[in-house]
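Same chain as my last thread, 195 residues:
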Amino acid sequence: MRNRSIDFMDRKFFRFFKIFVALLFLWFAAHSIYIIADGISDNGKRADLAVILGNKVNDNGTLSTRLEKRLESGISLYRDQRVRKILVSGGLGKEGFYEGDEMKEFLVSKGIPASAITVDNQGDNTRKTVENTLRLRPELHFNSLIVVSQYFHVTRTKKLFREKGFQEVSSVSPDYFEWKDLYALIREFPAYYTQ
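reply #2:
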């Protein structure tokens, strides 16, 4: 009798576990569809400021392709007169380069006036970039902004701005996709709800 009871409990637990895993997978799938759709859409809005989030600078000081593509998106926004100013934000990478400084150098080399670019070298993560951007608001005089990052990243970034009370935020992402985006999508799932 006792063995039957244990067997019944085991089956009940296993059934509950299967349902839990299925619901978690459905939640992840719905979330991923939402952030992909949001991330690749561009509503064409204009804004006072583009905020370009940093990414890896290689050991030799060149920019990772992912970072270059973000910057090229920012250049397009500026040249199309969708933004008046650009804020580049990143931290000190393990390679020994401040992402913000390297990003500004790239933008200037592509013809963006240095006077239109502000550097934030303390943007070590998405939350810090958001906080630092809003701290610079009195100096930069912006009431709207466009976040520039990978498609899987912009939804969370916009959410963080809105949680800080800044509502006029839209986004642009480069047409650049890598296999490691799959890992990033998985990582974004808990980050969206915890950061």
